[in-house]
Amino acid sequence: MKKILIPLITLWSTSLYIHANGSEVLTGYFIDSPVSGLYYETSSNLSGTTDKGAFQYNSGDIVSFFIGTDNSGYLLTTLSGQEVITPTLSSTRPSRSINMTRLLLSLDDTPEHRDEIILASKVLSDVEFQKKLKNLDLSYLDAQELGIDLVSVKEAAKHLNQSQEYIKNNFASEEIIFSPKDKVLHNIIIAKKDYAGRACFYDLAHHTNPKYEGPIGELSYTITDTELIQFPGTGDYFNGCNLRPYHTPQEIIREPLSVGDGWTGFTSCAHKGCTRHDLSGFSIEDYNDEGDWKYRTVALDFDTETELLMEKTQGLGQKEHIRHPNKAEMIWFTYTNERGNHIPYEGIWQHTLYQQTNIITECLLIKDRRIMLGSNDGETCPTNHQQYTQDVTEKFGDMWWLTNAEPTVSLAQMNVAIRWYDSVPQQHFTAWEYLPAGKDWDQGILYRFKQKISLNPDKSHNISTLSVSEFTKVRSNS
């Protein structure tokens, strides 16, 4: 990838359409190669179009990026504003991150020059194309008919690997952005797909079984100057999609740091403090791990605002040394406090449902384990709770956190696919995805993908998306 010198002018302005609010304006960059032509809006009312990746934001802002000319376009991602944003930082799903790159590369107006992605194609303003995007489940891009030629997963992975080199060359800094030493670190592990490409689901039929963990593992640990101390938890050993119940750590384990070479994430930099380079990266692994050949992508990202570390892996299919389908996907979330287990969900939410050609927007009050529908006459949801009069809780049987003892939800609950049952009972499948944003982690976009699952002849899953929902928290309960 060619090295692009970011013009000085972008440090001052990225678009003639930007509206400043008087506070000190910061410049960030959307890098998948620098991307020009993404429309963006921030929670402090800055807006514009990225120019060689550059966008403007204020400290503490939530930033949304759209494929299109304004906020009526396809919402690509919403996350906390920071200096460098990438596709791997923009999603909690491994395949969604790779497919975000595939989509951007496929829409690039200058495909012969991959050192910059320019979104200037007329297709972006095409009404029919935007309708197709609205119904897009980016985790299953190949199952959608967009009418464009898509680049391959392997080409996108190679491009992301090159983009990481660009970030290293242009944004290198010795600034310490996080110091994990002597802190209690919580690690959540979620299996997304098994080796055969079968989707992993948490089955709500077993939710009350205290021994059932499904595709979710959990560990806690502390890093000192000399050792890694692991506390009892449910563990991180999986058999396909399900956690192995007999590999649960029952006692404190102390491991000298000198024993392991090649530590990654917080452990690799705890002794000196972690820089951006320590906590971000994208690579393609292709090696023999004691007889178990690895051929996969590995993405590492740290959100400086939420202090959430994400590590994602995705199998890249068969190769000379790999005879099985090699389609496994997993994600690890690591954070330093209990916010990841106690995200407040009560409040007023705007729900936008995309189903075939229909777009339905409604206002919901979630409180006291109930979901109430309110009037939606204006452009914004009413803040008066008395205007929410219709109980629609039964329509949201897949919001399984409503039964939690406290009015909070865990990050794992909002990032796992579930098999759930209505009153008939008939089984349904929903995949949830949530990337935290804001100081309380409750300002991100919650995605709900209702899915239909069937088996292919090779026993892999054929997954079709029936509808896509976006939930945006408008107001918290005070």
List the helices and strands and how they pair.
Blueprint: E1 26-30, E2 35-36, E3 39-42, E4 47-49, E5 54-57, E6 62-67, E7 74-80, E8 84-85, H1 94-106, E9 117-118, H2 127-134, H3 153-170, E10 184-193, E11 201-203, E12 216-223, E13 227-235, E14 238-239, E15 242-243, E16 253-256, H4 266-269, E17 281-289, E18 292-303, E19 308-315, E20 329-335, E21 343-344, E22 347-355, E23 358-367, E24 370-374, E25 388-391, E26 408-409, E27 417-421, E28 427-434, E29 445-455, E30 461-476
Parallel strand pairs: 1-8, 2-9, 11-27
Antiparallel strand pairs: 1-5, 3-4, 3-6, 6-7, 10-12, 10-20, 12-13, 13-16, 14-15, 17-18, 18-19, 19-20, 21-26, 22-23, 22-30, 23-24, 24-25, 27-28, 28-29, 29-30
How would you describe the overall organization of this protein?
The protein is mostly beta strands. It folds into 3 domains: 8-170, no CATH class; 184-336, no CATH class; 343-476, no CATH class. The protein contains 4 helices and 30 strands. A 9-stranded mixed beta sheet has the order 11-27-28-29-30-22-23-24-25, with no helix packed on it. The protein has an 8-stranded antiparallel beta sheet with strand order 16-13-12-10-20-19-18-17, with helices on one face. A hairpin with a 5-residue loop joins strand 29 and strand 30 (461-476). The longest helix has 18 residues, at 153-170. It is globular and about 65 Å long. The termini are far apart.
